[in-house]
Amino acid sequence: MPAIVWMAIIFLGSTDMLSAEHTSRFLVPFLRWIDPHISLAALNAIQLGIRKLGHLTEYAILAMLLWRALRGGIRRQMQMSLLFLVAGLAGAIFAASDEFHQSFVPSRTASTNDVMIDICGALIGLLICLAFAARKRPERI
């Protein structure tokens, strides 16, 4: 259920509600408060960086939630590599479908670069899960 809720949050974020125009309404004044002399180019670069970091983070969280959901519903014999593959593929498919959805939102644009960033975020999340799973396994002698 948490993975489905997170997917709904990502879907809502892909609407006009979190477009660059709307996020700049609170981000630009905040950045100008920090540095009143900040240039327009710097503002645009920071906003772009924050938006791309958001993509990376939201898909890392999604992948971890998918990992958790799939891990809990399977037998222990399932190999970590298969779990990694299934969760990663699900994250990639959702990333592509999310960008496709954005192509229908007038204030948004679909981008293959964003899909790649999303997939990288999912891989980072899955690597974190693998690291924790490896720590929990007892070493074999």
Task: Characterise this structure.
There is one protein chain. The protein has 141 residues and is mainly alpha-helical. It has one domain. 77% of the residues lie in helices and 0% in strands. It is built from 5 helices and no strands. It has helices at residues 2-13, 20-34, 40-72, 80-102, 112-136. α3 (40-72) packs across α5 (112-136). It is globular, with a radius of gyration of 18 Å. The mean pLDDT is 83.
Question: Can you give keywords for this protein?
Answer:
single chain; 141 residues; 5 helices; 77% helix; globular
Query: Could you tell me how far the N terminus lies from the C terminus, measured between alpha carbons in angstroms?
Result: 38 Å
Number of DSSP helices? 5
The succession of helices and strands, N to C, reads: HHHHH
Count of extended strands: 0
Instruction: Decide which structural class fits the backbone.
Output: mainly alpha
Structurally, the number of domains stands at 1
Average residue pLDDT: 83
Beta-strand percent range: under 5%
Low-confidence stretches: none
Percent in helix: over 70%
Shape estimate: globular
Largest sheet: none
Overall radius of gyration:
18 Å
